[in-house]
Write a structure and sequence with these properties.
Layout: H1 4-8, H2 15-24, E1 29-32, H3 78-81, H4 87-92, E2 95-98, E3 105-110, H5 113-122, E4 127-130, E5 135-140, E6 146-150, E7 153-156, E8 162-163, E9 173-174, H6 177-182, H7 213-229, H8 234-249, H9 257-269, H10 274-288
Helix pairs in contact: 7-8, 7-9, 8-10
Length: about 290
C-alpha cells in the first residue's frame, strides 16, 4: 500500500465507520466539529494545563486517549478509534478529519475562486477535492504546514489536520518545488519591544539568588540551543524549555525581556508565531504559579 491509497479510495457516510475504513487504509483520522475545529479538550487537559495551544492545533506533553489535541490525536488504531473514551467525540463530530503529514501528503488548501484560479495556472495538476468554498490540491510528500502563504492559500501537512471530503479526482503527483517554496516563508520577527511578561519578586527583597550572570547566560544559551536543535514536537519543546527557564529564573530579578526575546526568536525560527510563543510562556508561568 502506498500513501496515495487512502486518498484514492473509500467513501462512507457514518463518521466512525468511515474513520475505521480510512484508518484500515493507513490514513490517520480524528473527529472534527461541524465548524472544522477539533473536539474539545478532555478533563485532564482542560485549560491547556498540559501545555497545548488554546486553539488545539498543537499538542502539549500528554498521552491522553481522547482526541484533545487535534492532529496529534489522529490515529490508524481501530481500538483507539472505537474506544469508549472516543464515543462522545464521534457523537459530536460533524466531519472526519485526518493528518495529512501522517498520510505522507500535503494539502494545498485553496479557500476561494481566486486561489483556485492561481493554482490552475501556477501549480502542476494533481488530485483535487472540492470544498465548500474552493478546493484541496493534494500532493504526495510532506513539508511543514504554513497558513496564509498567499491570499486564500494554506499548506496543511506536518503538525496539521484537514477535513476528509472524499477521494477526489485526478492522479496524485509528487510535491512540487513551487509548493515547497511557498512554505519557506520566513517567520515573523520578534518585535523590538515584546509584550511584557511580569514575574513576581520573591520574598526577601527580590534579590537575585544567582551569584554570577554567567549562570543565567549559560542557561539562556542552552535553552536557545535546545529549541534550535528540536526536529519534532516543536511546540512541546518550546513549552518545556520555557518552563525550565522560568523554573530556574522566574522568581528572581535576573530575567529580562532581552532574554525572553532571545527565546522567542529561537522559537520563531522553528516556525512558532509570536502569539504562540506568548501562549507557551503564559502556560508555563501559570503552571509554576508565577
Amino acid at each position: 500500500m502506498t500513501h496515495a491509497t487512502p486518498i484514492r479510495r473509500a467513501a462512507r457516510t457514518d463518521h466512525l465507520t468511515l474513520a475505521l475504513h480510512l484508518a484500515s487504509l493507513g490514513l490517520p483520522v480524528l473527529p472534527l466539529r461541524a465548524g472544522k475545529g477539533p473536539i474539545g479538550n478532555c478533563r485532564t487537559c482542560a485549560g491547556n494545563t498540559c501545555g497545548g495551544r488554546p486553539n488545539m492545533k498543537t499538542p502539549g506533553p500528554c498521552a491522553c486517549p481522547r482526541p484533545c489535541h487535534a492532529w496529534a490525536a489522529a490515529t490508524t488504531d481501530p481500538a483507539v478509534l472505537a474506544a469508549p473514551e472516543w464515543a462522545t467525540a464521534w457523537r459530536d463530530a460533524g466531519v472526519v478529519g485526518y493528518h495529512p503529514g501522517g498520510a505522507g501528503v500535503t494539502v494545498v488548501d485553496l479557500d476561494n475562486a481566486e486561489a483556485v484560479a492561481w493554482a490552475r495556472t501556477d501549480l502542476p495538476p494533481t488530485r483535487t477535492v472540492a470544498t465548500t468554498r474552493g478546493e484541496h490540491w493534494i500532493y504526495s510528500g510532506t513539508m511543514r504546514s504554513v497558513n496564509g502563504v498567499r491570499p486564500g492559500v494554506d499548506l496543511k501537512s506536518l503538525m496539521s489536520y484537514a477535513r476528509w471530503l472524499g477521494p477526489g479526482t485526478g492522479t496524485l503527483t509528487e510535491l512540487p518545488k513551487v509548493v515547497r517554496a511557498l512554505g519557506e516563508k520566513a517567520p515573523t520577527a520578534v518585535r523590538s519591544t515584546p509584550r511584557t511578561v511580569t514575574v513576581p519578586a520573591p520574598a526577601g527583597g527580590g534579590q537575585c539568588r544567582h551569584r554570577s550572570p554567567v549562570y543565567l547566560e549559560r542557561g539562556i544559551a542552552m535553552a536557545e540551543q535546545r529549541i534550535t536543535d528540536a526536529t519534532s514536537a516543536i511546540h512541546a519543546t518550546v513549552y518545556r524549555t520555557f518552563l525550565a527557564v522560568l523554573s530556574a529564573h522566574g522568581r528572581c530579578c535576573c530575567l529580562t525581556e532581552a532574554h525572553i526575546g532571545r527565546l522567542f526568536t529561537a522559537a520563531q525560527a522553528k516556525g512558532e508565531s509570536p502569539r504562540h510563543c506568548a501562549d507557551a510562556w503564559s502556560n508555563a508561568a501559570a503552571t509554576l504559579g508565577l
